[in-house]
Queue: 3 jobs
Job 1
Amino acid sequence: MPIGVIESLDHEARGITRLEGKTIFVEGALPGEIVEYASFRRKPSYELAHLVNVISGSVSRIRPHCEYFGVCGGCAMQHLEPSAQVAAKQRVLEDSLWHIGRVRPEQILSPIQGAPWGYRHRARLGVRNVPKKGGALVGFHERRSSFIADMRSCAVLPPHVSDLLLPLRALVASLSIPDRLPQIEVAVGEQCTALVLRILEPLNARDEDLLRQFADRHGVVFYLQPKGPDTVYRFYPLPGPRLSYRLPEFALELEFRPTDFTQVNHAVNRVLVRRALRLLDPRPGERIADLFCGLGNFTLPIARSGASVVGVEGSQALVGRGRESAVANGLADCVEFDVANLFECTPESLAALGRFDKMLIDPPREGAIEVVNAIGEDGPQRIVYVSCNPATLARDASVLVNDKGYAFKAAGVVNMFPHTGHVESLAVFEKACPQWIPSPAGPVT
């Protein structure tokens, strides 16, 4: 059995060791540990392995909080003390910036973090009817498997959602189509919790009655999705509260549909918006771009500052939601939303939006390489970049620094998904300016 010394964690929270020039990724191993491992996949330049035995353990290794950890694939880092998780993610960010982009920020921002449990307000739960295990299973997939974990609770879901797992299993098993309901999507709002049932065949009258009874008993709202995401519709109850989340610091409430993209962690999102706005420092009279704006998570707070803001997003539906929220929050006069595919951004299409004093970019995992390549000499004075992928942030940062003449002022991690290897981050780029205000010292919670 091979033995290795773990150097660090990768972006999927696997321990990294090396053997005869080959990189070995060991699931469950922690930095500084000496471990025995067994490989389950071999490639010419690397191997994937699972942990067999810890010979010398890390002081940061703890007992996982959840009994399903190691089987359920929803979490990857419960065996690592929470503050050490954040430190590991900070290292992943810094390593990516240097090794991929050959850039380093002038300042490391204090990490943004929140409660480690009960934080996940959005989730996609798999469903599978397994008579050998007593009926339907509802939960996350098992690690490295298409099977659904046999879980009866989940510590990262809000407690009231975790408490629904067993009742949902019973509900699915009682329906006429238990084998034709592969997914339940969960969306938790300020005033209601929505469950979207992906149904591959229509429900009958008895099924519909069972859903109504379940909704009344557990205080949830059912949506049905017979085909693609555009077919989702509210089933029961039809009247009542709608999904929304609040940004109290900016006196905002934004409505959304259960399949819209919103941040999974409402508490951390509030801190993220506050930090991003502080770094962007929008002021009355400025014209600011919010690219990949979604339904206005940053757009509307920027507008609340008195600046004029243009939100650009590829989804017509999300732009429509943003416009509705601008009206509902009294900001329609200082917000403009445009639909555009920013993955096809060119210098000409970016220039057609007009000149901006500042810019916020919040792209998906693919990053914003077309946008940063399109920025011209009259580009914005300051750019705040919200990233969900350190690798594409590093690539884009290299262009901004080496090709576009921006200084890389600061960067730091956002622990949006505790106990997972997912690394979100915040970065600031600026043209020469004497008025740069650094982030406050110490952690922001």
Note: The longest strand covers residues 46-56.
Job 2
Amino acid sequence: MDYRQKIIEEASVMFRTYGIRAVTMDMLAGRMGISKRTIYEVFSDKDEILHGVLNWMTEKQHAVMTIIFSESENVIEAVFRMLELMSDHFRKMSPAFRMDIKRYHSEIVRKLGEGNELPYFKNNSEILRRGISEGVFREDIDIEIINKCLFEVAKMSNDEEVFPPDDFPNKDVIRNFYINYLRGISTQKGLDLIDYYETRQT
């Protein structure tokens, strides 16, 4: 593993634990046992490190979701497993990290979002196509339009100004938004599967 990857992985842990603003280059260098100069030889500033962290997190989560998708018996099971993973991820993330991203680094996230590179949202088209082929989703839906809608639904469900986590647990918001949206595009077979997996997780 090269220094770039080591820095990204250590920064990922520190950002998610303490928040982005609280982590300095000196702290990161001290944690890794290297000089600050070594970090600056690889990254120009903390924003570049953050961009690397977000990309790396995305790649890891996408790889896990690909495994879930391939191992699940049907697309609805895959969706419920993915939502559980997503909820667990946000539960372990420091509120300071989310706040710093929103207040001071939203441009980075916006650019990732424009490229459909945000964690968890890459698989929607694949989910929809598989759902149609399994008879779970209606054949008359427009995959491109629904894919964009699901992306926006997922983003909205994570907006803490709209849904403060103290009042609206992230897991409940995601489920209510995403699952109820899927109900609207489901066949009877899909609705029955949604009811089955919801019952299993209550």
Note: The domain at 3-200 is CATH 1.10.357.10 (Tetracycline Repressor; domain 2).
Job 3
Amino acid sequence: MPASRAAALYAARALLPQGWCNDVVLHWDAAGLLTEVACGQDPAGWARAPGPVIPGMPNLHSHAFQRAMAGLTETRTDPHDSFWSWRTLMYRFAARLQPQQLEAIARHLYIEMLQAGYTSVCEFHYVHHASSGLPYANPAEHAERLIAAAADAGIGLTLLPVLYQYSGFGAQPPLPQQARFIHTPESLLALLQDLRRRHPPHGALRYGAAPHSLRAVSPHSLEQLRVGLHHDDPGAPLHLHIAEQHAEVEACLAALGARPVQWLLDHQPVDARWCVVHATHMTPAEYAALAGSGAVAGLCPTTEANLGDGVFDAQRYLDAGGAWGIGSDSQASVCARAELRLLEYGQRLLQRSRNVLAAAHGEAHAAVADRLYPQAVSGGARAAGRPIDGLRVGQRADFLVLDPDHPDLAERAASQLLSGLVFCEHGASPIRDVYTGGQQVVSERVHRSQDTALHAYRAALRELLS
């Protein structure tokens, strides 16, 4: 099934930044950037989308290799089973991972993401070295496998090599099972420089960096990395895990004298380049300050539920105008709609109320999904550092074509489509076709490489589980 290279597409209905519009023609150039988005157009002469068109969703937080672990940790092995006991199992799994297996897992996963509505991914990549803990002869071995997997799948990639130095606050020495993760700021910046030379950034590829967490890097190393990254690429995104667990917050208070988010805001020039992943446990003052910083909160509701992390106070944060996006993280679920649905449902359970994240009655986004979907696209685009913020001129032609005959969408007015997409879950996916950079990578729910990718994924899984 060859990728489509049409430079224009007509949609009877399309979701633009200003809302739903009729008779829309999208034009894009050879680089895959939208050059014109026109409403009220005559359909004659244009290739026609078979259903409503909406922007593709960025996935702002992914650990690709963990796809092969999905469903393998759902048995209680510890009387106090938690994120920390899950992490022990993850380390055992990561210890066995080989380069060809990582590439097979990532390729299959990225195809799944496309079929599920994600058109780009931020890969938070920390398994750098060989099983011995020593660098490969090619220090970029694993990073290049991820680049190849994304290119083969046709998904946009922001690659975020991770700085990981310590096992806990106070520069505690790394654990033996963390040996594959370890870098210094200097070696990580050198890795990024090498990757830019060998795989120059382009429309579908961007680089940033990820200090893993405040517990895994020192304040000095965090500053070194930020300054060095800014020198090499001033607009590069910076991502880190933060305030995911109560134990982490308590340890940060003991070691640094402040809660994690507050410490970061006090000691780093946090702005729109930053994505703070999880940020689950914050005070009201931290929610307000983070929202005002311009940073993106990276929310991963299915993983946060799977790990028992807690529930982000999304109502407080959204009402403060905070930027946010969604990610699949541990790959317990790979579905953009599921992340948005669980984000709202978590608030309903907390508040014992319905439609918590809708805008105020009478405002433009009184339907929850009409508020959540565009905001998640914009926040994800900011976190990715790529022009993927919806269907407007200058952005990538990354979009989804919905199935108008799907039972969850059929006979609905435009104002009801996103609600049906996000809050209904019946049968096959309502996402019919997927385009990235103007190229069709999924047609009638089928990806051109899904069968061969699945075969390689299963072979990798057999080896890892043997």
Note: The domain at 8-55+399-446 is CATH 2.30.40.10 (Urease, subunit C; domain 1).
